[in-house]
Amino acid sequence: MLQDKKIVLGVTGSIAAYKAAELTREFVKRGAAVRVIMTGNAAEFIAPLTFQTLSSNAVHSEMYPVINDYNLAHISLAEYADIMVIAPATANIIGKIAAGIADDLLTTTVMTTRAPVLICPAMNTNMYENAIVQENIMQLTSRGYLFMEPGYGKLACRSEGQGRLPEVSDIVEEVESILTVKDLGDERIIVTAGPTREPLDPVRYITNYSSGKMGYALAIAGRRRGARVVLISGPSALTAPRGVTFVSVSSAMEMKEAVMAHLKASTIVIKAAAVADYRPATRLASKMKKQAGPLTLSLERNPDIIAEIGKKKGKRILVGFAVETENLIENARAKLIDKNMDLIVANDVTQAGAGFGYDTNIIKILDRNGGQVELPMMDKIAAADRILDRVKDIIAEKGRK
Ligand code: CTP
Description:
Layout: E1 6-11, H1 17-29, E2 33-38, H2 42-45, H3 48-55, H4 73-80, E3 83-89, H5 91-99, H6 105-112, E4 117-121, H7 125-129, H8 131-142, E5 146-147, E6 151-154, E7 160-164, H9 168-178, E8 188-193, E9 198-201, E10 204-206, H10 213-224, E11 228-233, E12 245-248, H11 252-263, E13 268-271, E14 278-280, E15 299-301, H12 305-311, E16 317-324, H13 328-338, E17 343-348, E18 360-361, E19 363-367, E20 372-374, E21 378-379, H14 380-398
Helix pairs in contact: 1-3, 1-9, 4-6, 5-8, 10-14
This protein binds cytidine-5'-triphosphate.
Protein backbone atom coordinates (compact mmCIF):
# COMPACT_ATOMS: atom_id res chain seq x y z
CA MET A 1 0.00 0.00 0.00
CA LEU A 2 1.19 3.54 -0.66
CA GLN A 3 0.10 4.78 2.78
CA ASP A 4 2.88 7.04 4.15
CA LYS A 5 5.20 6.28 1.22
CA LYS A 6 7.33 9.19 0.08
CA ILE A 7 7.24 9.71 -3.66
CA VAL A 8 9.32 12.23 -5.57
CA LEU A 9 7.61 12.79 -8.92
CA GLY A 10 9.69 14.30 -11.72
CA VAL A 11 7.66 15.98 -14.47
CA THR A 12 9.37 16.89 -17.75
CA GLY A 13 8.36 18.81 -20.84
CA SER A 14 5.92 16.60 -22.72
CA ILE A 15 2.29 17.25 -23.55
CA ALA A 16 1.53 14.27 -21.28
CA ALA A 17 2.61 16.48 -18.33
CA TYR A 18 -1.06 17.15 -17.64
CA LYS A 19 -1.52 13.45 -16.87
CA ALA A 20 1.07 13.81 -14.09
CA ALA A 21 -1.53 15.91 -12.28
CA GLU A 22 -3.89 12.93 -12.22
CA LEU A 23 -0.98 10.72 -11.14
CA THR A 24 -0.23 13.05 -8.23
CA ARG A 25 -3.88 12.90 -7.20
CA GLU A 26 -3.92 9.09 -7.29
CA PHE A 27 -0.74 8.85 -5.21
CA VAL A 28 -2.15 11.28 -2.64
CA LYS A 29 -5.50 9.43 -2.59
CA ARG A 30 -3.64 6.26 -1.62
CA GLY A 31 -1.97 7.98 1.34
CA ALA A 32 1.42 8.78 -0.20
CA ALA A 33 3.31 12.03 0.37
CA VAL A 34 4.26 13.51 -2.99
CA ARG A 35 7.00 16.05 -3.75
CA VAL A 36 7.02 17.24 -7.33
CA ILE A 37 10.11 18.37 -9.23
CA MET A 38 9.37 20.13 -12.52
CA THR A 39 11.84 20.91 -15.25
CA GLY A 40 11.68 24.34 -16.87
CA ASN A 41 10.08 22.82 -19.98
CA ALA A 42 7.41 21.02 -17.92
CA ALA A 43 6.33 24.39 -16.54
CA GLU A 44 5.61 25.47 -20.14
CA PHE A 45 2.96 22.75 -20.39
CA ILE A 46 1.34 22.88 -16.94
CA ALA A 47 1.41 25.35 -14.08
CA PRO A 48 3.37 24.43 -10.93
CA LEU A 49 0.37 25.63 -8.93
CA THR A 50 -1.58 22.57 -10.15
CA PHE A 51 0.93 20.20 -8.55
CA GLN A 52 1.30 22.39 -5.47
CA THR A 53 -2.44 22.23 -4.94
CA LEU A 54 -2.76 18.50 -5.60
CA SER A 55 0.25 17.48 -3.51
CA SER A 56 -0.21 20.09 -0.75
CA ASN A 57 3.52 20.73 -1.06
CA ALA A 58 5.60 23.42 -2.72
CA VAL A 59 6.82 22.40 -6.19
CA HIS A 60 10.59 22.19 -6.63
CA SER A 61 12.40 23.42 -9.69
CA GLU A 62 15.35 25.50 -8.51
CA MET A 63 18.74 23.92 -7.87
CA TYR A 64 19.88 26.05 -4.99
CA PRO A 65 17.12 27.20 -2.66
CA VAL A 66 17.58 25.86 0.86
CA ILE A 67 14.44 23.90 1.78
CA ASN A 68 15.55 23.43 5.36
CA ASP A 69 18.39 24.92 7.26
CA TYR A 70 21.08 22.38 6.48
CA ASN A 71 20.29 20.63 3.21
CA LEU A 72 20.27 21.48 -0.46
CA ALA A 73 17.12 20.57 -2.36
CA HIS A 74 18.62 17.78 -4.45
CA ILE A 75 20.16 16.13 -1.41
CA SER A 76 17.11 16.34 0.80
CA LEU A 77 14.70 15.23 -1.95
CA ALA A 78 17.01 12.38 -2.97
CA GLU A 79 17.18 11.13 0.61
CA TYR A 80 13.52 11.77 1.26
CA ALA A 81 12.31 9.54 -1.59
CA ASP A 82 11.15 5.96 -1.08
CA ILE A 83 10.82 5.99 -4.85
CA MET A 84 11.37 8.48 -7.66
CA VAL A 85 8.96 8.43 -10.60
CA ILE A 86 9.63 10.41 -13.76
CA ALA A 87 6.35 10.74 -15.63
CA PRO A 88 6.27 11.83 -18.35
CA ALA A 89 9.93 11.32 -19.23
CA THR A 90 11.14 12.94 -22.45
CA ALA A 91 13.92 11.64 -24.73
CA ASN A 92 15.96 14.55 -23.40
CA ILE A 93 15.75 13.60 -19.70
CA ILE A 94 16.47 9.93 -20.50
CA GLY A 95 19.50 10.98 -22.53
CA LYS A 96 20.76 13.28 -19.81
CA ILE A 97 20.45 10.65 -17.08
CA ALA A 98 22.15 8.05 -19.31
CA ALA A 99 25.02 10.47 -20.05
CA GLY A 100 25.47 11.37 -16.39
CA ILE A 101 24.51 14.98 -16.92
CA ALA A 102 23.22 16.67 -13.78
CA ASP A 103 22.49 20.25 -14.71
CA ASP A 104 19.13 20.85 -13.07
CA LEU A 105 17.28 19.80 -9.93
CA LEU A 106 15.65 16.70 -11.44
CA THR A 107 18.77 15.20 -13.02
CA THR A 108 20.82 16.03 -9.93
CA THR A 109 18.28 14.41 -7.62
CA VAL A 110 18.17 11.27 -9.82
CA MET A 111 21.97 11.16 -9.68
CA THR A 112 21.98 11.47 -5.90
CA THR A 113 19.15 9.16 -4.83
CA ARG A 114 19.52 5.57 -3.66
CA ALA A 115 15.78 5.00 -4.07
CA PRO A 116 14.42 3.04 -7.04
CA VAL A 117 13.77 5.28 -10.06
CA LEU A 118 10.81 4.45 -12.32
CA ILE A 119 10.93 6.18 -15.70
CA CYS A 120 7.76 6.45 -17.79
CA PRO A 121 8.62 7.70 -21.29
CA ALA A 122 6.13 9.70 -23.35
CA MET A 123 7.13 11.07 -26.73
CA ASN A 124 6.60 10.92 -30.46
CA THR A 125 6.93 7.39 -31.89
CA ASN A 126 9.92 8.22 -34.07
CA MET A 127 11.71 9.72 -31.11
CA TYR A 128 10.94 6.67 -28.96
CA GLU A 129 12.12 4.30 -31.67
CA ASN A 130 15.27 6.33 -32.33
CA ALA A 131 18.29 4.08 -31.75
CA ILE A 132 19.88 6.63 -29.41
CA VAL A 133 16.83 6.67 -27.13
CA GLN A 134 16.60 2.87 -27.22
CA GLU A 135 20.29 2.51 -26.39
CA ASN A 136 19.92 4.95 -23.50
CA ILE A 137 16.97 2.96 -22.16
CA MET A 138 18.91 -0.30 -22.43
CA GLN A 139 21.93 1.20 -20.73
CA LEU A 140 19.87 2.65 -17.89
CA THR A 141 17.94 -0.61 -17.51
CA SER A 142 21.21 -2.52 -17.14
CA ARG A 143 22.16 -0.06 -14.39
CA GLY A 144 18.99 -0.79 -12.43
CA TYR A 145 16.71 2.05 -13.56
CA LEU A 146 13.16 0.83 -14.06
CA PHE A 147 11.15 1.63 -17.18
CA MET A 148 7.54 1.29 -18.22
CA GLU A 149 6.81 0.78 -21.90
CA PRO A 150 4.81 3.62 -23.42
CA GLY A 151 1.40 2.69 -24.76
CA TYR A 152 0.18 2.59 -28.36
CA GLY A 153 -2.40 4.96 -29.70
CA LYS A 154 -3.06 8.41 -31.08
CA LEU A 155 -0.39 10.88 -30.06
CA ALA A 156 -0.67 14.63 -29.57
CA CYS A 157 1.43 15.17 -32.72
CA ARG A 158 -1.49 13.54 -34.63
CA SER A 159 0.51 10.45 -35.52
CA GLU A 160 -0.35 7.01 -34.24
CA GLY A 161 2.06 4.56 -32.64
CA GLN A 162 3.98 3.80 -29.46
CA GLY A 163 4.75 6.80 -27.30
CA ARG A 164 1.75 7.47 -25.06
CA LEU A 165 2.36 7.83 -21.36
CA PRO A 166 1.30 4.52 -19.73
CA GLU A 167 -2.14 4.69 -18.10
CA VAL A 168 -2.07 6.46 -14.74
CA SER A 169 -3.60 3.38 -13.04
CA ASP A 170 -0.80 1.22 -14.49
CA ILE A 171 1.89 3.59 -13.22
CA VAL A 172 0.30 3.56 -9.76
CA GLU A 173 0.19 -0.25 -9.82
CA GLU A 174 3.83 -0.42 -10.90
CA VAL A 175 4.84 1.84 -8.00
CA GLU A 176 2.82 -0.32 -5.58
CA SER A 177 4.60 -3.37 -6.93
CA ILE A 178 8.11 -1.87 -6.76
CA LEU A 179 7.56 -0.84 -3.13
CA THR A 180 6.24 -4.27 -2.06
CA VAL A 181 8.59 -6.81 -0.48
CA LYS A 182 8.90 -9.84 -2.79
CA ASP A 183 8.23 -12.48 -0.14
CA LEU A 184 6.30 -14.81 -2.49
CA GLY A 185 8.93 -14.79 -5.23
CA ASP A 186 9.13 -18.60 -5.37
CA GLU A 187 5.39 -19.16 -5.61
CA ARG A 188 3.15 -19.86 -8.58
CA ILE A 189 -0.42 -19.08 -7.66
CA ILE A 190 -3.65 -20.02 -9.41
CA VAL A 191 -6.48 -17.70 -8.43
CA THR A 192 -10.03 -18.29 -9.62
CA ALA A 193 -12.42 -15.36 -9.53
CA GLY A 194 -15.87 -14.17 -10.45
CA PRO A 195 -19.06 -16.07 -11.11
CA THR A 196 -19.60 -18.80 -13.64
CA ARG A 197 -22.28 -18.59 -16.29
CA GLU A 198 -24.31 -21.72 -17.03
CA PRO A 199 -26.06 -21.45 -20.39
CA LEU A 200 -29.65 -22.48 -20.83
CA ASP A 201 -30.15 -21.46 -24.45
CA PRO A 202 -28.39 -18.99 -26.76
CA VAL A 203 -29.79 -15.96 -24.91
CA ARG A 204 -30.12 -17.03 -21.25
CA TYR A 205 -27.91 -18.29 -18.47
CA ILE A 206 -27.83 -18.97 -14.72
CA THR A 207 -25.24 -17.08 -12.66
CA ASN A 208 -24.70 -15.34 -9.30
CA TYR A 209 -23.80 -11.90 -7.94
CA SER A 210 -20.02 -12.42 -7.70
CA SER A 211 -18.15 -9.38 -9.09
CA GLY A 212 -14.69 -10.99 -9.09
CA LYS A 213 -13.24 -8.23 -6.86
CA MET A 214 -11.88 -10.51 -4.13
CA GLY A 215 -10.17 -12.85 -6.60
CA TYR A 216 -8.71 -9.97 -8.62
CA ALA A 217 -7.44 -8.41 -5.39
CA LEU A 218 -5.69 -11.71 -4.55
CA ALA A 219 -4.11 -11.81 -8.00
CA ILE A 220 -2.88 -8.21 -7.67
CA ALA A 221 -1.55 -8.73 -4.13
CA GLY A 222 0.19 -11.98 -5.12
CA ARG A 223 1.82 -10.38 -8.14
CA ARG A 224 3.01 -7.38 -6.10
CA ARG A 225 4.66 -9.83 -3.68
CA GLY A 226 6.59 -11.46 -6.50
CA ALA A 227 4.50 -14.57 -7.21
CA ARG A 228 3.75 -15.69 -10.74
CA VAL A 229 -0.02 -15.57 -10.92
CA VAL A 230 -2.52 -17.23 -13.22
CA LEU A 231 -5.93 -15.58 -12.81
CA ILE A 232 -8.77 -17.73 -14.12
CA SER A 233 -11.83 -15.56 -14.23
CA GLY A 234 -15.47 -16.06 -14.96
CA PRO A 235 -17.35 -13.16 -16.61
CA SER A 236 -16.47 -9.93 -14.78
CA ALA A 237 -16.57 -6.22 -15.55
CA LEU A 238 -13.08 -5.80 -14.03
CA THR A 239 -9.94 -5.16 -16.09
CA ALA A 240 -7.39 -7.96 -16.16
CA PRO A 241 -4.60 -6.95 -13.76
CA ARG A 242 -1.18 -6.15 -15.21
CA GLY A 243 1.55 -8.73 -14.95
CA VAL A 244 -0.63 -11.79 -14.41
CA THR A 245 -1.50 -14.56 -16.86
CA PHE A 246 -5.18 -14.00 -17.46
CA VAL A 247 -7.49 -16.81 -18.53
CA SER A 248 -11.07 -15.89 -19.29
CA VAL A 249 -13.70 -18.62 -18.86
CA SER A 250 -17.45 -18.72 -18.73
CA SER A 251 -18.96 -21.95 -17.35
CA ALA A 252 -17.88 -24.11 -14.40
CA MET A 253 -16.81 -26.82 -16.86
CA GLU A 254 -14.51 -24.35 -18.62
CA MET A 255 -13.16 -23.13 -15.30
CA LYS A 256 -12.38 -26.69 -14.25
CA GLU A 257 -10.56 -27.35 -17.51
CA ALA A 258 -8.46 -24.18 -17.14
CA VAL A 259 -7.61 -24.90 -13.49
CA MET A 260 -6.57 -28.47 -14.26
CA ALA A 261 -4.40 -27.28 -17.18
CA HIS A 262 -2.43 -24.97 -14.86
CA LEU A 263 -2.50 -27.13 -11.72
CA LYS A 264 0.75 -29.00 -12.29
CA ALA A 265 2.87 -25.84 -12.39
CA SER A 266 1.24 -24.27 -9.32
CA THR A 267 2.34 -24.17 -5.67
CA ILE A 268 -0.75 -22.41 -4.30
CA VAL A 269 -4.37 -22.60 -5.45
CA ILE A 270 -6.87 -20.02 -4.22
CA LYS A 271 -10.46 -20.64 -5.26
CA ALA A 272 -12.24 -17.33 -4.80
CA ALA A 273 -14.65 -18.00 -7.67
CA ALA A 274 -18.33 -18.42 -6.95
CA VAL A 275 -18.74 -21.55 -9.03
CA ALA A 276 -22.31 -22.50 -9.91
CA ASP A 277 -23.08 -25.84 -8.29
CA TYR A 278 -25.61 -26.70 -11.02
CA ARG A 279 -26.03 -26.19 -14.74
CA PRO A 280 -29.07 -26.67 -17.00
CA ALA A 281 -29.21 -30.36 -17.92
CA THR A 282 -29.50 -29.51 -21.58
CA ARG A 283 -28.29 -26.46 -23.43
CA LEU A 284 -30.90 -25.75 -26.05
CA ALA A 285 -29.62 -24.96 -29.53
CA SER A 286 -32.35 -22.39 -30.13
CA LYS A 287 -34.18 -19.93 -27.92
CA MET A 288 -36.69 -21.45 -25.54
CA LYS A 289 -40.19 -20.10 -26.25
CA LYS A 290 -42.63 -19.35 -23.46
CA GLN A 291 -45.57 -21.65 -22.86
CA ALA A 292 -48.73 -21.46 -20.85
CA GLY A 293 -48.25 -22.33 -17.16
CA PRO A 294 -45.17 -22.64 -14.98
CA LEU A 295 -41.82 -23.93 -16.16
CA THR A 296 -39.57 -26.40 -14.37
CA LEU A 297 -35.90 -26.38 -15.24
CA SER A 298 -33.90 -29.53 -14.94
CA LEU A 299 -30.41 -28.91 -13.53
CA GLU A 300 -27.45 -31.23 -13.11
CA ARG A 301 -24.46 -30.98 -10.79
CA ASN A 302 -21.30 -29.27 -11.87
CA PRO A 303 -18.01 -30.80 -10.80
CA ASP A 304 -16.75 -29.48 -7.45
CA ILE A 305 -13.45 -28.11 -8.69
CA ILE A 306 -11.83 -27.47 -5.33
CA ALA A 307 -12.83 -30.90 -4.01
CA GLU A 308 -11.17 -32.50 -7.04
CA ILE A 309 -7.99 -30.50 -6.45
CA GLY A 310 -8.15 -31.46 -2.76
CA LYS A 311 -7.89 -35.14 -3.70
CA LYS A 312 -4.64 -34.65 -5.57
CA LYS A 313 -3.13 -31.49 -4.20
CA GLY A 314 0.25 -32.95 -3.18
CA LYS A 315 2.29 -30.25 -1.42
CA ARG A 316 0.24 -27.42 -2.82
CA ILE A 317 -1.49 -25.04 -0.45
CA LEU A 318 -5.22 -25.04 -1.16
CA VAL A 319 -7.37 -22.11 -0.11
CA GLY A 320 -11.14 -22.02 -0.52
CA PHE A 321 -13.87 -19.53 0.22
CA ALA A 322 -17.13 -20.07 2.01
CA VAL A 323 -19.82 -17.57 1.21
CA GLU A 324 -22.59 -18.07 3.71
CA THR A 325 -25.71 -16.41 4.96
CA GLU A 326 -26.05 -18.48 8.19
CA ASN A 327 -23.93 -20.71 10.47
CA LEU A 328 -20.81 -19.19 8.95
CA ILE A 329 -18.12 -20.89 11.01
CA GLU A 330 -19.69 -24.37 11.17
CA ASN A 331 -20.37 -24.45 7.43
CA ALA A 332 -16.93 -23.10 6.59
CA ARG A 333 -15.15 -25.57 8.86
CA ALA A 334 -17.07 -28.48 7.33
CA LYS A 335 -16.03 -27.39 3.81
CA LEU A 336 -12.41 -26.94 4.92
CA ILE A 337 -12.23 -30.54 6.11
CA ASP A 338 -14.46 -32.18 3.46
CA LYS A 339 -12.64 -30.60 0.53
CA ASN A 340 -9.13 -31.08 2.02
CA MET A 341 -8.27 -27.36 2.00
CA ASP A 342 -5.47 -25.83 4.06
CA LEU A 343 -7.33 -22.60 4.70
CA ILE A 344 -10.85 -21.39 4.19
CA VAL A 345 -11.90 -17.76 4.05
CA ALA A 346 -15.34 -17.40 5.57
CA ASN A 347 -17.45 -14.55 4.43
CA ASP A 348 -20.92 -13.68 5.76
CA VAL A 349 -22.48 -11.81 2.85
CA THR A 350 -25.39 -10.58 4.95
CA GLN A 351 -23.05 -8.06 6.68
CA ALA A 352 -22.81 -4.54 5.23
CA GLY A 353 -19.35 -4.02 3.71
CA ALA A 354 -18.80 -7.72 3.05
CA GLY A 355 -19.10 -9.89 -0.01
CA PHE A 356 -20.29 -9.46 -3.56
CA GLY A 357 -19.68 -6.16 -5.30
CA TYR A 358 -18.12 -4.30 -2.35
CA ASP A 359 -14.54 -2.97 -2.40
CA THR A 360 -14.27 -4.04 1.23
CA ASN A 361 -14.68 -7.37 2.94
CA ILE A 362 -15.06 -8.77 6.45
CA ILE A 363 -13.40 -12.17 6.58
CA LYS A 364 -12.46 -14.92 8.95
CA ILE A 365 -9.60 -17.23 7.99
CA LEU A 366 -9.85 -20.76 9.38
CA ASP A 367 -7.12 -23.41 9.33
CA ARG A 368 -7.14 -27.17 9.85
CA ASN A 369 -5.79 -26.96 13.41
CA GLY A 370 -8.82 -25.08 14.67
CA GLY A 371 -7.11 -21.69 14.28
CA GLN A 372 -9.28 -18.74 13.34
CA VAL A 373 -8.21 -15.20 12.40
CA GLU A 374 -11.06 -12.68 12.51
CA LEU A 375 -10.42 -9.53 10.57
CA PRO A 376 -12.29 -6.22 10.70
CA MET A 377 -13.73 -4.61 7.58
CA MET A 378 -10.87 -3.71 5.24
CA ASP A 379 -10.38 -3.13 1.54
CA LYS A 380 -10.11 -6.28 -0.54
CA ILE A 381 -6.41 -5.83 -1.38
CA ALA A 382 -5.60 -5.55 2.35
CA ALA A 383 -7.76 -8.64 3.01
CA ALA A 384 -5.95 -10.44 0.18
CA ASP A 385 -2.61 -9.65 1.82
CA ARG A 386 -3.81 -11.09 5.13
CA ILE A 387 -4.88 -14.29 3.34
CA LEU A 388 -1.47 -14.51 1.64
CA ASP A 389 0.22 -13.94 5.03
CA ARG A 390 -1.63 -17.00 6.38
CA VAL A 391 -0.63 -18.99 3.28
CA LYS A 392 3.00 -18.09 4.05
CA ASP A 393 2.54 -19.30 7.66
CA ILE A 394 1.20 -22.64 6.40
CA ILE A 395 4.13 -23.03 3.98
CA ALA A 396 6.50 -22.40 6.91
CA GLU A 397 4.60 -24.86 9.15
CA LYS A 398 4.50 -27.58 6.54
CA GLY A 399 8.19 -27.06 5.86
CA ARG A 400 7.80 -27.18 2.12
CA LYS A 401 11.01 -25.23 1.75
N1 CTP B 1 -16.25 -24.56 -5.44
C1 CTP B 1 -15.69 -25.22 -6.51
N2 CTP B 1 -16.50 -25.88 -7.39
C2 CTP B 1 -17.83 -25.89 -7.23
C3 CTP B 1 -18.41 -25.21 -6.14
C4 CTP B 1 -17.59 -24.55 -5.25
O1 CTP B 1 -14.46 -25.20 -6.66
N3 CTP B 1 -18.59 -26.52 -8.10
C5 CTP B 1 -15.35 -23.88 -4.47
C6 CTP B 1 -15.50 -22.39 -4.40
O2 CTP B 1 -14.62 -21.74 -5.30
C7 CTP B 1 -15.15 -22.08 -2.96
C8 CTP B 1 -15.57 -23.32 -2.22
O3 CTP B 1 -15.69 -24.34 -3.20
O4 CTP B 1 -13.75 -21.94 -2.78
C9 CTP B 1 -16.84 -23.21 -1.45
O5 CTP B 1 -17.89 -22.90 -2.30
P1 CTP B 1 -19.42 -22.88 -1.82
O6 CTP B 1 -20.29 -22.78 -2.98
O7 CTP B 1 -19.56 -21.88 -0.75
O8 CTP B 1 -19.53 -24.26 -1.17
P2 CTP B 1 -20.25 -25.55 -1.58
O9 CTP B 1 -19.35 -26.65 -1.18
O10 CTP B 1 -20.67 -25.50 -2.99
O11 CTP B 1 -21.47 -25.61 -0.57
P3 CTP B 1 -22.93 -24.98 -0.58
O12 CTP B 1 -23.17 -24.40 -1.95
O13 CTP B 1 -23.77 -26.14 -0.28
O14 CTP B 1 -22.91 -23.96 0.50
